[in-house]
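> example.struct
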């Protein structure tokens, strides 16, 4: 385990901090290391720092099962931070695989190999001709025990069981027995723990109102990704993100499931419902009126009739389509007793509509179907 290596910084990479630095020679074997670089380099115009740095001429290096995490920053905008750096024009690696590469920060790049920056795992694989079982990930580390660096257990599932077994390393850094067939990447064996389920509120709205997105939050914040599903088995993936616009507009109860995920660690699902209901009429100005609509369903040849019984009122009548857009407007002038007002449906396409009735600043609504 290597961490806490810092300096003021310098030009290039020779006198800047690295987790492991090989200046010359060859035949090095780097297995099961956890290297965590943190802090800032304030000096130098072009400082270079890496979790593992190899000078020109170093050859025959074997690297397996290592965590190379570089979170260092440089004050100089031309500074560079890498998980892996090799100054040679050709790959110095005889074997390189099953490593976890992580470079985080404004001046970070995943690796520099064969004389060029390798910003992605695909580019690094092209340069080394290997690394097929390696991962490029945001590694989360912690120092829960003095002298020890451990992966954050509920954010490191992509490191669990991903190392290559090496017979001469039956135990980890702390003396725990390594899994003989699927050991973990890095200095420690560990067991992932569960992520907390996200929090998400149910939504209840009246038909015709703007349908808000469903929103979820989680303890992982921006480190995690909220993923929405349409079934409890979590096989119908719908969306990835904090806010999910369902696209629903019709009356009904719709159920969704959202999980939090970080580096293949997935929480249990939170159930979220969206209820679109028939509008509730409780307003005083309308309570004295008896309102009925017929026929419903209506059609172009069977227009709607609004029947009103009660005190005299003038009602504004508005028809909204399924997207909440007004498509028809007229007045219904009601005298004391019972009156009927015909509402034309000849210009309405078949579908579900909302009939909104307003008087004296109060509003009620009815669901209408046009065939």
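> example.seq
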């Amino acid at each position: 385990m290597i961490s806490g290596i810092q300096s003021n910084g310098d030009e290039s990479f020779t006198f800047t901090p690295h987790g492991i630095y090989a200046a010359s020679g060859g035949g090095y074997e780097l297995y099961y290391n956890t290297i965590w670089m943190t802090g800032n380099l304030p000096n130098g115009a072009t400082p270079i720092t890496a979790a593992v740095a190899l000078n020109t001429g170093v050859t025959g290096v074997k690297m397996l099962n290592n965590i190379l995490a570089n979170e260092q920053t440089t004050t100089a905008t031309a500074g560079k931070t890498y998980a892996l750096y090799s100054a040679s024009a050709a790959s110095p690696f005889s074997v390189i695989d099953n490593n976890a590469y992580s470079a985080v920060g404004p001046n970070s790049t995943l690796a520099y190999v064969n004389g060029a920056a390798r910003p992605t795992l695909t580019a690094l694989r092209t340069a080394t001709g290997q690394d097929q079982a390696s991962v490029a990930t945001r590694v989360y580390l912690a120092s829960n025990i003095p002298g020890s660096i451990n992966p954050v257990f509920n954010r490191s599932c992509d490191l669990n069981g991903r190392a290559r077994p090496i017979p001469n390393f039956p135990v980890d850094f702390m003396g725990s027995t390594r899994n003989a067939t699927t050991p973990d990447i890095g200095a420690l064996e560990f067991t992932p723990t569960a992520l907390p389920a996200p929090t998400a509120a149910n939504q209840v709205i009246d038909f015709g109102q703007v349908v808000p997105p469903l929103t979820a939050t989680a303890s992982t914040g921006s480190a995690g990704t909220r993923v929405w599903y349409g079934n409890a088995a979590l096989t119908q993936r719908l969306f990835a993100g904090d806010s999910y616009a369902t696209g629903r507009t019709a009356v009904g109860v719709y159920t969704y499931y959202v999980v939090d995920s970080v580096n293949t660690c997935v929480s249990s699902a939170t159930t979220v419902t969206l209820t679109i209901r028939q509008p509730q009429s409780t307003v005083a100005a309308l309570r004295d009126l008896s309102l009925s609509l017929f026929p419903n369903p209506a059609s172009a040849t069977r227009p709607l009739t609004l029947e009103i019984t009660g005190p005299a009122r003038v009602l504004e009548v508005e028809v909204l389509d399924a997207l909440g857009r007004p498509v028809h407007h007229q007045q219904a002038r009601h005298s004391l007793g019972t009156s009927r007002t015909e509402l034309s449906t000849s210009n309405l396409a078949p579908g579900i509509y909302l009939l909104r009735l307003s008087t004296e600043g109060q509003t009620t609504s009815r669901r209408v179907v046009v065939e």
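> remarks
The CA atoms of residues 125 and 131 lie 5 Å apart.
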